[in-house]
Amino acid sequence: MVGASQFETFVPEKGATWGLYMERLNFHFEAHGIMDDAKKRALLLSVCGPSTYALIRSVISPKLPNELSYEEITVAMKQYFNPAPSEIVERFRFYKRDQRPNESIADFVAELRRLSEHCNFGNGLDTALRDRLVCGISDESLQRRLLADQVATFDVALREALATETARLQALEIRTGSSQDDVKQVCTTTRKQMPNDNRTCSGQRSLKVDKCYRCGGGHDAQVCRFINQSCRYCQKMGHIERVCRKKIRQRKLDLSQPYQQLKVDEQTAELLTLNTLKGLLQMTRLPFGIDVAPSIFQRFMDTCLAGLDGVKAYLDDVLIMGRSEAEHWERVKAVLERLDKAGIRLKRDKCIFGVDEVEYLGF
C-alpha cells in the first residue's frame, strides 16, 4: 500500500492537464489492484497536492469531499478544467484545416482525427474526414483526380492519397539517381574539343543539384515547405523574400557579332572554303548559317562563364543577377574579365545596366 500512495501531485502550472493526470492515476490504481471507490477517493485527495485539494473543495462546495464518491469528484473537476467545447466552433476548426506545406498525408489525417474529437459527427465521421481530406489536400492534381473519381469512402480516398504521395517521392528519388548516372555515362564518351573549349570530362564528375527557387535550399521545389508562402517583397505566393526575382538587380550584356569572334582550326577552315568569282575564300572564323554554329557558340559561352554565380548566358545574351548593388557589380566585373580574357567584344548600345527587370528571351 505504501507504493500505491506514491504518486506525483497535480501541478497545472507546469503544463499538465487534468484529463491526462486522471488517466495515469487510474492506471496506477489498476496496477496496485485498488478497486474500492472509497480508497480511490482517499488516494486522490491525499496525492493531488494542497493547492489542488483546496480547488476541489471550492468546486464541490457546499458539499465536502467525504460526501461525494470518487467518480462524482472526478466528473466535477473534469467539467471545471475542460468545459464542454462548442460543437459549432470545433466543426469550424475542422473544416478550416488544410494540409500545410511540407506536411505528409498521414500527419494531415492524424490532425483531422484530433480536430474531429468534439465535433459530434457520430456515424458521419468517415464522410466528414473524406470531404476534408479531398478539399484540404495541397496536391491539386491529386485533388482533381479524387473529385473526378467521386470516391465513395474515406478509406478509398486515403489509400489513393497515400499511394500517390509515395509514388511522387519515389519518382523524385529515381529521377535524382538516374540523372547522376546519366551525367557520368555521358562524360565517359570522347569527343573532339572545339577551339577555346578547355572543359574536361571524367567518370568521377558529380552532378550539381539546382537550388530550390522557392527558398534557395538544396532540395526539389515541389517538396519545399515554402510552396504556399507569400513573399514579403512582391506579395506573390510560392517563394520567400530572400530569393525574390523582383528584388534582384539585373544587367544584360549583348555581344557584338558573336559567331565571328570565334576562330576555327585549319581543318575546319578547309571545310568552310567558299568558291567565289575571285577564287577560293577560306573562312577563319565561325560563320552564320551553318547548323552547328549555335550549339558551338553556346558551348563556348557556357565554358567561358562556368562557375560564376548569378550569371546565365543564351548565345550572345548574358544575364547577370545580384541581390545587392555591391554583389551585382562584383559579378559584372567577373563576367567582363572572363569575356576580355577570351577576346570577346560587347555591343555597348545594347547592354542594359542597373535595372530591376529586363526582357530576356522574350520574358
UniProtKB/TrEMBL annotation:
- Listed GO MF terms: nucleic acid binding; zinc ion binding
Mind telling me which CDD domains this protein's record contains? RT_LTR (cd01647)
Superkingdom of the source species:
Eukaryota
Q: Which Pfam family, giving just one, matches this sequence?
A: RVT_1
Annotated CCHC-type domain ranges read 211-226, 230-246
InterPro entries tied to this protein? DNA/RNA_pol_sf, Retrovirus_Pol_polyprotein, Rev_trsase/Diguanyl_cyclase, RT_dom, Znf_CCHC
Name the record gives this protein: CCHC-type domain-containing protein
Native organism: Trichuris muris
